[in-house]
Write a sequence for this structure.
């Protein structure tokens, strides 16, 4: 019964919350025609953040809601008193730990958290290893640094370090927050012509400008905590897609190249990356520039990405300050507001919110 309560009080409401949040976000983006990728990413974080409100809020609904109704739907706000009850339960300490169900549940949570932490450490060490594999200076790679120096003046960032990785399956990516490192594959660079190489490096520098590396890690951690929630994966992929699209837009804006040329360079680069023989699949976060799979959905995503570049209007890349403030307020309102659906089965309640 204890684990059934965990399922109905937490797991199902969390999945439901992400689903409803994702639907609301898609409707809002469609209705208001929001093109600013930063605002779109903010809203796509909603299905990743909102479930944690459900996690910290234990609902006692048996004596409070809808005793005579089989089900109902409505809108509510989180009750701070529910969170205070949890704090008081923790103050009881030993009395809770004496319950075998709580001990088993605590052990499961500890194991899951430990596995996730180990996973993040392994990913970080992998990226760190690549970042220090073969660092090159200006004298070693003057053509790469020439592209970097020309573009960073326009987007106003500091020049990152450059590291070459000789693992052919690795797609170019950026690692580091305070001191970013641009990781490139010499095997890939050999396949690219001058314009394609320039667009590729400019795209990765745009990720640095946008702080996508930090945002990507935050989204990854939230998604991993919600590993049982399929809608968290959808939200995460939407965030990554927006990061790629906006980096493409920045290349169009600051490179002074025609949109069609940028789109062609990106498409050719992706096709050449895919043509490189791989000994094993590349880790998740290193596939920032492309998706290796040729599945229908990835082909559709690539088509939408190219169309997005061709439709770029430079003045419309980002919203003005006042609309951004309004959208942030709207985001906070959606974060707190809960669309609840209560189902009563005999004397048992399932409270989705």
């Amino acid at each position: 019964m204890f684990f059934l309560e965990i399922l109905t009080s937490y797991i199902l409401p969390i999945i439901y919350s992400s689903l409803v949040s994702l639907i609301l976000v898609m409707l809002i983006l469609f209705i208001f025609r929001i093109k600013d990728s930063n605002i779109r990413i903010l809203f796509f974080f909603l299905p990743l953040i909102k479930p944690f409100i459900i996690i910290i809020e234990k609902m006692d609904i048996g004596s409070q809601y809808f005793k005579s109704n089989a089900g109902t739907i409505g809108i509510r706000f989180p009750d701070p008193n529910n969170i205070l009850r949890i704090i008081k339960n923790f103050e009881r300490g030993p009395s809770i730990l004496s319950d075998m169900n709580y001990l088993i549940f605590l052990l499961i949570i500890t194991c899951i958290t430990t596995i996730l932490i180990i996973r993040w450490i392994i990913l970080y060490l992998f990226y760190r290893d690549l970042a220090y594999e073969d660092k090159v200076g200006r004298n070693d790679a003057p053509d790469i640094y020439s592209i970097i120096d020309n573009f960073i003046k326009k987007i106003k960032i500091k020049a990152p370090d450059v590291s070459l990785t000789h693992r052919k399956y690795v797609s170019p990516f950026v690692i580091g927050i305070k001191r970013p490192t641009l990781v490139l594959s010499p095997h890939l660079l050999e396949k690219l012509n001058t314009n394609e190489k320039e667009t590729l490096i400019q795209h990765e520098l745009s990720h640095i400008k946008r702080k996508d590396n930090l945002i990507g890690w935050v989204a990854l951690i939230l998604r991993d905590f919600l590993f049982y929630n399929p809608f968290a994966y959808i939200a995460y992929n939407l965030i990554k897609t927006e990061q790629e699209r906006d980096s493409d837009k920045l290349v169009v804006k600051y490179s002074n190249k025609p949109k069609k040329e940028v789109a062609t360079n990106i498409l050719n680069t992706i096709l050449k990356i895919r043509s490189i023989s791989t000994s094993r699949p590349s880790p998740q976060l290193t596939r920032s520039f492309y998706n290796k799979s040729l599945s229908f959905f990835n082909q559709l995503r690539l088509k939408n990405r190219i169309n997005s570049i061709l439709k770029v209007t430079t003045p419309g890349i980002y919203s003005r300050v006042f609309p951004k403030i309004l959208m942030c307020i709207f985001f906070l309102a959606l974060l707190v507001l809960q669309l609840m659906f209560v189902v009563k089965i005999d004397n048992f309640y399932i409270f989705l919110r």
In short: The mean pLDDT is 83. The two ends are 21 Å apart (CA to CA). DSSP finds 14 helices and seven strands in the chain.
